[in-house]
Design a protein that fits this description.
8 helices, alpha/beta, two-stranded antiparallel sheet
Length: 238
């Protein structure tokens, strides 16, 4: 089985939709996705993901099932008296704490315990497990039981923050590494494929991460959204 994760196109967060550039990105993404046969299509309930998906759905004359847990990850912490999202921490802070690099310990860091991060993290983990089980793969420790192994392809339109949470659970690694050291740019595609080297025992390989070949093929430059400044003196996003 393959899971294709498509991030929403260039966002306009003020109206929870996409920009004019995002519309161009979403149309090019749709041209790419229409070439693949998907057994099921899912989508976040948020507007920017649904708008991105709409171009593909219109082309193939189908609907996406909305997954409530696939909205952008909104676990909150209290940082110096201010409520903030948990996954945007400065490197000097989080890299100094060894537990942030551990799948089993990152939620136990004091900052992560003072908000609702665990509740939201568990919601996403349970959601992706239920989705995989629906398609024949049951979470079992650090692996999956291939109860109904298949070569189906399923497609999910969502957001980078929640994508990182899904990948952290599937791969048994801390999401802090994915949130901060990886970035899936707008309209990018990440693909996971099941690996069953022993009968009935599966893991998932990432065979493609943050792919933007549809943009390059259409002459569209990738969006800067989700990136930060390359140099501190840049006037780009800090």
């Amino acid at each position: 089985m393959e899971l294709w994760i498509a991030r929403h196109a260039d966002p306009d967060y003020s109206i929870d939709s996409v920009t004019e550039k995002g519309e161009r990105e979403a149309k090019l993404l749709a041209e790419r996705l229409i070439k693949t046969e998907f057994s099921a299509v899912y989508c976040s309930p948020l507007g920017r993901a649904k708008k991105t998906a709409s171009y593909y759905l219109e082309k193939c004359k189908r609907e996406a099932e909305i997954l409530p847990w696939a909205h952008e990850f909104d676990g909150k912490i209290n940082w110096k008296g201010e409520e903030q999202i948990c996954w945007d921490r400065l490197p000097a802070y989080w890299t100094a704490i060894d537990d942030y690099y551990s799948y089993d310990k990152w939620l136990g860091v004091e900052l992560m315990k003072n908000g609702d991060v665990k509740r939201h993290y568990d919601e996403v983990c349970e959601g992706i497990d239920a989705l995989f089980e629906r398609h024949g793969y049951v979470h079992d420790g650090r692996m999956y039981r291939a109860e109904k192994p298949n070569a189906d392809k399923i497609l999910l339109f969502c957001h980078f923050g929640v994508e990182a949470v899904m990948l952290s659970h599937i791969f048994n690694i801390s999401p802090m590494i994915l949130w901060h050291n990886f970035v899936a740019l707008p309209s990018s595609v990440t693909r996971l494929a099941s690996v069953e080297r022993e009968q009935g025992k599966a893991i998932f390989n990432c065979i493609q991460f943050g792919d933007l070949s549809h943009l390059y093929a259409g002459g569209e430059e990738p969006s800067f959204a989700a990136r930060f400044c390359e140099q501190f003196t840049d006037d780009t996003r800090h």
